[in-house]
C-alpha cells in the first residue's frame, strides 16, 4: 500500500489536478432582521416644555397668542402685574415658538401654526364669564395699550380665532348677560299671550253681563 505522503505527491504531480478548497459550514442558525429606525429621543427640557404647552392649551378656556418685540424683563414684569389685577388667574407665559408650534399641530388649532414665529408668548386663563363677564374685553384693552405686543389669534373655549375674531368676541357681552337677554326675548311673547288669555275671559264676562241686562230690560212690563 502506497504511503499517504507518496500518494499525496503523486496526486499533486498530476497536471490535471485542481485543489479543492474546503468550506466550513456553520451550523449556527441565523435569522433575517429588519432594522427599524428608533424614535428620536428628545432632550428632557424639550419634552418638559412640550408637555407644559400642551397643558396650557388643554386646561385653559382662553389662550391668546402674541408676538412681542424688544420686550425687556422690566416691561414683562409690569405687564404680568397688570394682568394679575384682572383676576381670574390670568397668566402670561413666554414660549419657545418651535416647540409651541409643534404642540399646535397636534391639536385642532393647527391653523395657527404658520403664525407662530419669533418671540412668542401666550396669555392663558380659565376664568369664567360668571366670575368676570368682561374678561376678554379687559384683556384685549390692556394688550392694545402695549405697542410691543401683537395679538395674532388664539382660542376661546374650543373655538379657533384669528385677530379679528378675538376683537369681535371682546365686544360681545358675557355669556351670562347674553343668556339673560335671550331669556327675556323668549319670555316676552309668552307674557303677551298670557295677557291676551287673561283679557279674553274678562271681556266675555262683561259681554255676558251686558247681554243679561239687556234681557232684563226687555222683560220688564211697559207702563
Automatic annotation (TrEMBL):
A Pfam entry, by short name: Ribosomal_L10
Example of a GO cellular component annotation carried by this entry: ribonucleoprotein complex
Alphabetical list of Gene3D superfamilies matching this protein: 3.30.70.1730
Alphabetical UniProt keywords: Ribonucleoprotein, Ribosomal protein
Source superkingdom: Eukaryota
CDD domains according to UniProt: Ribosomal_L10
Entry-linked PANTHER family: 39S RIBOSOMAL PROTEIN L10, MITOCHONDRIAL
Family stated for the protein in its record: Belongs to the universal ribosomal protein uL10 family.
Name of the protein this chain belongs to: Ribosomal protein L10
Organism listed in the record: Umbelopsis ramanniana AG
Amino acid at each position: 500500500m502506497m504511503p499517504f505522503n507518496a500518494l499525496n505527491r503523486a496526486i499533486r504531480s498530476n497536471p490535471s489536478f485542481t485543489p479543492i478548497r474546503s468550506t466550513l459550514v456553520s451550523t449556527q442558525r441565523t435569522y433575517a432582521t429588519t432594522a427599524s429606525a428608533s424614535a428620536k429621543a428628545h432632550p428632557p427640557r424639550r419634552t418638559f416644555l412640550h408637555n407644559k404647552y400642551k397643558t396650557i392649551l388643554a386646561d385653559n378656556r382662553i389662550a391668546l397668542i402674541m408676538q412681542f418685540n424688544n420686550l425687556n424683563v422690566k416691561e414683562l414684569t409690569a405687564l404680568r402685574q397688570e394682568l394679575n389685577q384682572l383676576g381670574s388667574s390670568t397668566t402670561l407665559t413666554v414660549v419657545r415658538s418651535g416647540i409651541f408650534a409643534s404642540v399646535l399641530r397636534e391639536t385642532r388649532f393647527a391653523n395657527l401654526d404658520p403664525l407662530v414665529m419669533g418671540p412668542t408668548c401666550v396669555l392663558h386663563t380659565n376664568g369664567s364669564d360668571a366670575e368676570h363677564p368682561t374678561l376678554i374685553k379687559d384683556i384685549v384693552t390692556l394688550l392694545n395699550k402695549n405697542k410691543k405686543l401683537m395679538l395674532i389669534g388664539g382660542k376661546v373655549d374650543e373655538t379657533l380665532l384669528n385677530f379679528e375674531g378675538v376683537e369681535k368676541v371682546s365686544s360681545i357681552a358675557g355669556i351670562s348677560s347674553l343668556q339673560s337677554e335671550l331669556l327675556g326675548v323668549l319670555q316676552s311673547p309668552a307674557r303677551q299671550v298670557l295677557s291676551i288669555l287673561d283679557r279674553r275671559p274678562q271681556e266675555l264676562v262683561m259681554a255676558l253681563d251686558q247681554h243679561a241686562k239687556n234681557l232684563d230690560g226687555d222683560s220688564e212690563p211697559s207702563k
